[in-house]
From TrEMBL:
SMART domains: MACPF (SM00457)
Name of the gene: LOC108556756
Organism per entry: Nicrophorus vespilloides (Boreal carrion beetle)
Domain MACPF: from-to ranges: 183-372
Protein name listed in UniProt: Torso-like protein isoform X1
Length: 378
């Protein structure tokens, strides 16, 4: 639910949330009860600025801030994280961002992943999911947003129809409902890996950021909402870009549990190639999804469809498992998967920008209330 479309409902909920914690702010200049009465004005101001960008955000950089509330549930619109049906693959991240900190270069780290010359620079990953919710959670496992217990919902809440879920996951929509279990197999190729070291307490802010902080007043909900719209709610702490292939295998529960236990007790390295292939073949799987490319690159998908096809008795299907342990296929894919998608993202609350502890606590109070409401109503 987008709360801004239902101001009366939202005002009631946020008033309840704020009133629950008003004792903590009773001795301050403005009581929280006053803040609750200002929600209508705050919502109006937010609506007026909903489409105003604080800065051009077509480049992904650590330390920049962004607002995760305005597009909660639909962040995939501005971040290339899952296969999408569009021809333009020239962008990875186009969420509006705001410059916050001064002189971050000494605090910026570029970790290097060790890889032998000519080897595949990435990882092969398999995750067992008891249900559809776990499947969505597994796909966004490497996305962490401070203050959200279920960060994957910031992307998937907008997947309102079975057809949308099926399209993104590469499976038939008939397998979205029902007592099915899933195995997500993913092969990721890493390119850029950037993160911030721990921010010091005396980290310097840009002058315009300090001016924005001055516009927040303790007890005034509207001032916090306007701040989050102009500046953001979180800053980018780290990210990894690259590209990945992924595929979903659908099972009936008894077979799924049998395979999971077998892999758990033996480990994938101790299974014979024949046994491993059987587990991910039509003999065991109720449905084998299409191999998807996170960036939507059609050339890569065409390569996967042709080179990863398996002929198994009377069956013919594509399987990402075919590439497991095949150095030739991995080498070919290493050159095909370019820097076209966002694979990992860690966002931290803008708490460090507030030097005044009272103002910092007020900002956190409002931010936590809104984020909790978004999650509870997703």
């Amino acid at each position: 639910m987008n709360f801004l479309q239902y101001p009366k409902i939202f005002e009631t909920m946020i008033s309840y949330r704020i009133n629950r914690s008003r004792d903590a702010f009773r001795k301050r200049r403005c009581k929280v009860a006053v803040a609750a009465r200002m929600c209508s004005r705050a919502l109006l101001l937010v609506l007026l600025t909903a489409f105003v960008s604080a800065a051009d955000g077509d480049k992904l950089q650590v330390g920049q801030s962004m607002d995760i509330m305005s597009r909660y549930g639909y962040l995939g619109i501005t971040m290339r994280v899952v296969a999408r049906n569009e021809s333009d693959t020239s962008w990875i991240f186009r969420e509006p961002t705001y410059d916050v900190f001064a002189n971050l270069d000494p605090l910026t780290v570029h970790p290097r992943r060790s890889a032998k010359s000519g080897s595949f620079n990435g990882e092969f990953h398999m995750e067992f999911c008891d249900n559809l919710r776990q499947l969505k959670q597994a796909y966004f496992r490497d996305f962490a947003f401070e203050g959200l217990d279920k960060p994957w919902q910031a992307f998937t809440t907008g997947w309102s129809s079975p057809e949308t879920i099926a399209r993104h996951m590469g499976i038939n929509s008939s397998f979205v409902h029902g007592d099915y279990c899933y195995v997500l197999v993913r092969l990721s190729r890493f390119w850029d890996n950037v993160k911030l070291s721990r921010l010091p307490n005396n980290v310097n802010l840009l002058e315009n950021m300090a001016e924005e902080i001055e516009k927040i007043f303790v007890g005034d909900v509207a001032s916090v909402l306007m701040f989050t719209r102009r500046v953001g709610t979180h800053y980018i702490n780290s990210f990894v870009t690259g590209n990945s292939l992924y595929q979903v295998f659908v099972y009936h529960k008894p077979i799924y549990l049998r395979i999971r236990e077998r892999l758990k007790t033996r480990g994938i390295k101790n299974l014979s190639p024949v046994e491993l292939s059987n587990f991910f073949s039509p003999w065991y799987a109720e449905h084998i999804g299409q191999i998807q490319v996170a960036s939507g690159n059609k050339t890569v998908k065409h390569w996967a469809t042709n080179r990863l096809r398996v002929h198994y008795y009377i069956f013919s299907y594509t399987s990402l498992m075919k590439i497991h342990g095949d150095t030739k296929l991995l080498s070919d894919l290493n050159g095909l998967l370019q820097n076209e998608a966002l694979l990992q993202l860690d966002l931290r609350s803008l708490t460090p920008v507030f030097k005044d502890p009272v103002k910092r606590e007020w900002f956190n109070e409002i931010l936590d209330n809104y984020l909790n409401l978004l999650e509870e109503n997703s």
